Amino acid sequence: MDTEGRAEGGLTPERLGEIVGSLGRRIEDTDELGELLQRSVDLAHDVIRGADSCGVTIDYDGTTYTAVYTDSTTLAVDEMQYETGEGPCLEASRTDTTIVVDCDSTEQRWPEFAAAARTEGVHSFLASPIRTLDGVIGSFNLYGSSADAFDDMDADILDSLTTTVGRAIGEHARYTDATTTVSGLRDAMARRAPIEQAKGILMAMRGLDADAAFDVLSREAQRRNVRVREVAADFVRDATRTDPAG
Fold first, then answer.
1. pTM for the complete prediction?
2. What domains lie within the chain, and their CATH numbers?
3. pLDDT value of residue 144
4. What is the DSSP string of the chain?
């Protein structure tokens, strides 16, 4: 990948610092933690060219699940790894190592997973461990549709995002514990379903990207002094209500 061309496209170190800084706010509860994780994967999708699908895997104390994701491909590829017990996100989490591989080099390493990933059109993988004071708690994962989609610069960018995510999870876990945070985050993700629905509707209706759609919901939540998920649920209900005149 041409890193010089990418820098000319606007992703300077200063811009990356601004992006990471925008995520670095205090987290009050697992709902806000879920929002930060979702914004992190959306940002990775936006700023890393080869990242066609992105997600965060939580893999801690016998619990493994996908916390946030950008599309159905992420979920499908993650589930393949959980079912086969092999793949880049699990290896990154369980060996505390950043993994950069493509399908050709994974055929002998993870044969069952590599074959399944190809059926989803995924040929490249970049996974970075999420480190907290309680140890590695999962991985931040990028999937690309082309071979050799990721390079060292992409790994550095992902490392910056992953460090921010790990710090946020760790800060929240300080007031409870890692196991409670992992469980609470899973519940928070279930509550986020209306937010993702509302974002999708806004993106289709107004031509917004995921981050801008979330900002619309967030501003309305601040105006009404309610949680974003309440605004999202109201929006989805209004948007999908059958028009009697129709």
1. 0.73
2. 11-177 (3.30.450.40), 195-240 (1.10.10)
3. 96
4. --HHHHHHTT--HHHHHHHHHHH-PPP-SHHHHHHHHHHHHHHHHHH-TT-SEEEEEEEETTEEEEEEESSHHHHHHHHHHHHHT-SHHHHHHHHT--EEEEHHHHTTTSHHHHHHHHHTT--EEEEEEEEETTEEEEEEEEEESSTT---HHHHHHHHHHHHHHHHHHHHHHHTS-HHHHHHHHHHHHHHTHHHHHHHHHHHHHH---HHHHHHHHHHHHHHHTS-HHHHHHHHHHHHHS--TT-
- Using alpha carbons, list the distances in angstroms from residue 115 to 38, 84, 141: 28, 11, 18
Flag residues of the chain having pLDDT under 70: 1-28, 173, 175, 242-246
Q: Is 213 exposed, middle or buried (0-12, 13-18, 19+ CB in 10 A)?
A: buried
Nearest residue to 142 (alpha-carbon basis) of 157, 132, 131? 157
State the pLDDT at residue 218.
84
Q: pLDDT tens, 114-140?
A: 999 999 999 999 999 999 888 999 999
pLDDT at 222: 87
pLDDT of residue 24: 57
